[in-house]
What does this fold into?
Amino acid sequence: MKSVRQKKILQIIENSVVSTQKDLADALIDAGFEVTQATVSRDIKELNLIKIAAGENLYRYAAPQEAVMVSEKKFEFVLQEFVLEVDYSENMVVVKTAPANANVVAYALDNFTWKEVIGTVAGDDTILLVIKPKEKTLEIVNRIKSYIE
It folds into this structure.
């Protein structure tokens, strides 16, 4: 039940502005969950939710990765500007960049919306991406190529 409730919390904060624990508890109750403020407080802590600006003097709950996500426009710019070549083997993708730009591209890849990229390691001009599941590797390669071609 806890995992279902926490999944619902993530859906709620993604789709609406929730500023307080009471607002979140009310939304959960409206969705059919029996919760107390203490339960909501524990869920917020376990999910590592943070508060981000949502307007002037307004803050809302957000999942940690939501706060650092790279926009499509920035992602496209970074890949077009710095990626030179892409290749792969099994569940690993190697991305070659212009010298001294691998970290910028790796940051964009780590913080974009591709859940199949479970991690990156960047050197000076080379990035290693680890993909999960392995069957998605070619798809990721093709996505990257679609930005740079």
Observations:
- Residues 21 and 40 are 7 Å apart (CA to CA).
- The chain has a mean pLDDT of 91.
- The domain at 2-68 is CATH 1.10.10.10 (Arc Repressor Mutant, subunit A).
- The beta strands are 50-53, 59-62, 83-89, 92-97, 117-122, 126-131.
